């Protein structure tokens, strides 16, 4: 049989391209940058998701599908020597963690920055769900010792208020997410000096965190608080690890790799994500659109997929038809843990499990734009897991995966690059 020279040339060019990509990632995983990560993409960015700096990733040569190799794990730029013991006052700051782990990270950062600036003692927060009465102690989900130890030399942390201090005497102060030192000086410090104790309530001016170029003395403190304070307590961490191990066992045909997709039916219905207008900017994608997207960029039917949807919904059937190995929490969580961790819809446990599982998956696909996507991306990039693929309605039968890298893995787009070296 004759050999088509055009095919030979095409094969050589393709091989050359992969060699170049490999050399680029070995030479330069992450350059230092000057711009700060915005925390969230705009809806237009969410739809296109194109990144030209493809030297940040390398493709696997052994697995079926467009799997990518992990990049180098980043090292924290903050060190204990940078933090001198701040002068302490006798006042306290209290706050609550609300709305899920993607918000917890930001709320912790803001509270630590404020407490350090005014010299207050930070009281360990409680955790409040979206439903009335859904309250938990910090230690039910997060590791208290890790939290206190990580902030040693930054702010003083108290597990509880002293008996002689009443929460009723605290002044409630609303603060914007990513609060600035100027805002603290003008609007928070005077109240703290007058009242002695304050309770913080963080609000989010936009679900997408905006890009910030102005540098501040509190940047290192905020970075430490966001990336270095929160770890799951042992029992919750054990559940996450067991679920990941189960998914890897189910993924033997892809070398134990799996995809995590943030796809929650209730949110998709609220955002009116039905329909598939090609080329239109979208902020969320349906199960059918995700299935077609993954198929067109090269993932085969044996690919294992984890969905953040807690319990199966018939609208997900189309995804399972194309990718039979598609699972939710209820199908892969150990039986003896379901009573506690799947006890109710939309519980804090479920949200935390989704957040940390998506942070550790081999590929993350955000079907919904917003803070969950932004902060999962931050944790992934810091640990070298840059396989974040932004969905799109793709015309035709196939597309290059390189056209759908998240804009967060661009060198100058992400907070992780401001916090890590």
UniProtKB/TrEMBL annotation:
GO terms for biological process: fucose metabolic process. It comes from the Eukaryota. Keywords: Carbohydrate metabolism, Fucose metabolism, Glycosyltransferase, Transferase. One of its GO terms (molecular function) is glycosyltransferase activity. The keyword Nucleus does not apply. PANTHER family: O-FUCOSYLTRANSFERASE FAMILY PROTEIN, PROTEIN MANNAN SYNTHESIS-RELATED 1. Belongs to the glycosyltransferase GT106 family. This is O-fucosyltransferase family protein. It comes from Jatropha curcas (Barbados nut). The lineage of its organism: Eukaryota, Viridiplantae, Streptophyta, Embryophyta, Tracheophyta.
């Amino acid at each position: 049989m004759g050999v088509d020279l055009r095919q030979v040339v095409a094969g050589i060019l393709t091989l050359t391209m992969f060699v170049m990509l490999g050399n680029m990632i070995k030479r330069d995983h992450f350059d230092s940058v000057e711009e700060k990560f915005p925390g969230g993409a705009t809806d237009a960015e969410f739809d296109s998701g194109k990144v030209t700096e493809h030297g940040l990733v390398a493709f696997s040569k052994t697995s079926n599908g467009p799997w990518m190799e992990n990049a180098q794990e980043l090292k924290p730029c903050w060190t204990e020597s940078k933090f001198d013991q701040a002068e302490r006052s006798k006042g306290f700051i209290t706050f609550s963690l609300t709305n899920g782990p993607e918000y917890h990270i930001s709320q912790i950062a803001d509270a630590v920055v404020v407490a350090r600036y005014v010299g207050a003692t930070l009281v360990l927060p409680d955790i409040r769900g979206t439903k009335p009465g859904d309250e938990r102690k910090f230690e039910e989900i997060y590791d208290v010792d890790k939290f206190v130890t990580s902030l040693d030399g930054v702010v003083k942390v108290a597990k509880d208020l002293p008996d002689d201090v009443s929460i009723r005497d605290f002044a409630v102060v609303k603060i914007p997410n990513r609060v600035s030192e100027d805002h603290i000086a003008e609007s928070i410090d005077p109240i703290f000096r007058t009242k002695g104790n304050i309770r913080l309530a963080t609000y989010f001016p936009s679900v997408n965190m905006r890009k910030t170029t102005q540098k501040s003395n509190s940047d290192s403190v905020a970075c430490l608080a966001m990336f270095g304070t929160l770890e799951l307590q042992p029992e919750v961490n054990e559940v996450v690890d067991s679920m990941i191990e189960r998914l890897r066992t189910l993924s033997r045909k892809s070398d134990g790799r799996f995809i995590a997709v943030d796809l929650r039916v209730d949110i998709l219905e609220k955002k009116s994500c039905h329909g598939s207008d090609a080329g239109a900017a979208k902020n969320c994608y349906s199960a059918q659109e995700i299935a077609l997207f993954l198929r067109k960029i090269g993932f085969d039917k044996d690919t294992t997929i984890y969905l953040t949807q807690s319990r199966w919904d018939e609208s997900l059937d189309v995804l399972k038809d194309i990718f039979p190995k598609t699972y939710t929490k209820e199908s892969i969580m150990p039986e003896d843990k379901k009573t506690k961790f799947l006890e109710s819809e939309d519980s804090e446990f479920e949200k935390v499990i989704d957040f940390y599982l998506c942070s550790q998956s081999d590929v993350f696909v955000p079907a919904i734009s917003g803070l969950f996507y932004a902060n999962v991306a931050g944790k992934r990039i810091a640990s070298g897991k840059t396989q974040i693929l932004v969905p799109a309605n793709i015309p035709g039968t196939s597309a290059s995966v390189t056209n759908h890298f998240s804009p967060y893995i661009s060198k100058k787009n992400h907070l992780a690059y401001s916090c890590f070296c």
